[in-house]
Amino acid sequence: MNNEKWKRIFPEKISKNIRSIIKDDLEGPVALQFLCSNKEYEDNPHAVDDALGEGLYQMQEGLIHCYNNRVLLHFAADCPARCRFCFRKNSFSQRSSYYLEDNLDSYVKYLSEDNTVTDILISGGDPIILDLELLRKSLKLIRDANPCAVIRFCSRGPLTLPEKITQEFVEILKENMPLWFVFHVNHPQELNSATLEALERLREGMIPVVSQSVLLKGINDDEHILAQLFNQLLRLGIKPYYLFQADAVAGTAGFRTDLMDSLEIYGRLKILNGGLALPALAVDLPGGGGKVFLTKEIVLEKHIDYYLIKREDGVVFKYPC
Ligand code: SF4
Q1: What is the pTM of this model?
Q2: Does the N-terminal or the C-terminal CB of the chain have fewer CB atoms within 10 Å?
């Protein structure tokens, strides 16, 4: 696939705060995440569009039910800024006609009829882009349909659109407790003053915040960078939650670390950071195999272009290098 095609499928989009961090550092760790570069044009013959196999568990448009008690709801189809390594980068254009209003009723019906759901992930795109009134209405309907489930609001908003995290936004989240804000952050440089102020507003509003990060080649694949990021988050009252292996999605090969390198980096990180500042290293298995904790024990063997990984229940998956 050539450069022009990638730019058409997943056009560059950069927000004001991200521009203010990048400035002229076009080879820096933030620029590399958001500016088109040769990293995303490297070939990966095993990469697919839907590396997680979410399509297999899509019960209706925008609703993924992969694990017994957990449901993922797409609240938005786009983001304020687009990460070049995004695992949904190939489905952005297909979802251009997606509107939350069209799916709300069916989300509510599904949740009202399934009383096994204890965990609702709100994702996208990034739900931070929603108009506040639509967000208020949508979260209330979801909460009314399932009064007890924990809601996880997954967003890069404190970095990509910090101005959106206003008092009013925080109040909307507070009205729908129990709710956790899951902040996607990958590098200490992302924690500039605007991001920190947005996180502080969440903290002042008593919204519990955890982080999730993606291990990215040439960006944060270094235990010292990760240790600095996770310690800084911890000082802000944010528990580092997940560190993900980057998925084998078409157009992201240049961002992916080798599985064994990831394990080595994580091993060294464990020496540097205590448990509170240590997220779980996790990998999403291909073909809808779900998320597993990545340890040396589950990696059975390496072949030329894939690893064999054994899930807890004994099922073995081919994981693309
Ligand atoms: S914020 Fe998340 S969904 Fe949006 S482009 Fe980045 S990785 Fe993809």
Answers
A1: 0.95
A2: N
Among 18, 74, 126, 212, say which to mutate for ligand 1: greatest number of ligand atoms within 8 Å of CB: 126
pLDDT tens column, 230-266 = 999 999 999 999 999 999 888 888 999 999 999 999 9
Of 147, 205, 195, 196, the C-alpha closest to 171 is 205
CA-123 nearest atom, ligand 1: 3
On whether the CB atoms of residues 305 and 46 are closer than 8 A, the answer is yes
Tokens coding 131:
């108009």
Is the pLDDT assigned to residue 5 strictly greater than 70?
no
43 pLDDT higher than 70:
no
| Cα 315 to Cα 5, 54, 311, distances in angstroms | 37, 18, 5
Counting ligand 1 atoms within 8 A of each CB, the residue from 14, 64, 78, 83 with the most, and so the one to mutate, is 83
